Amino acid sequence: MDFITLAKSRYSVRNYSERQIEKDKLDKILEAAHIAPSARNKQSARIYVVQSTEGIEKLRSLTRCAYNAPTILMIGYEESEQYRNEMEEGILSGQQDASIVATHMMLEAAELGLGSVWVDGFPNTETAEAFHLPKSVKLVCLMPVGYAADDAKPAPMHEKYRPIEEMVKIL
Q1: So what's the pLDDT on residue 49?
Q2: Domain extent listing, the chain
Q3: CB hemisphere CA count around 37 (13 angstroms)
Q4: Which residues have a Cβ under 8 Å from the Cβ of 169 and sit 6 or more positions away?
Q5: In degrees to the nearest 10, what's the CA dihedral of 119, 124, 130, 131?
Q6: Which SS3 state, helix, strand or coil, does residue 115 take?
Q7: What is the pLDDT of residues 60-91, one digit of tens each?
Q8: For the domain 3-149, what is the CATH code?
């Protein structure tokens, strides 16, 4: 499958089967994260794999957006390792680095026949504290991953795109 076909076919899965993903598939998803580019190759991204019953229940108590997934990835960045743009104060790479990593993992999961969804709807700081993450690690998103439930389907707006001319401007 070519990349555009893969990108168009993946969708945000919001209902998962109970089947746990195989270790070799999880390893491939994590390898996709590991090789993701980052600003100045600082590699500030951090990934926390939650698969234990206790960890999954803790996340479900913090957000309704766990979607019954058997694996949830918590993706963030280490503040002290992010790139700081010397040309403009306040321009930092941590969120970008974590977002690139998350996108790599999401697309690798799709290639492996797994579903995923990018979750912003969670209390970032409270979640980090609940899992005793270092204060210097800032969570960016959660990513439930697994096999889609039989009744899972794309959201109604999945294939609706604004015209490319509204997005792309040639200067």
Answers
A1: 98
A2: 3-149
A3: 2
A4: none
A5: 70
A6: strand
A7: 999 999 999 999 999 999 999 999 999 999 99
A8: 3.40.109.10
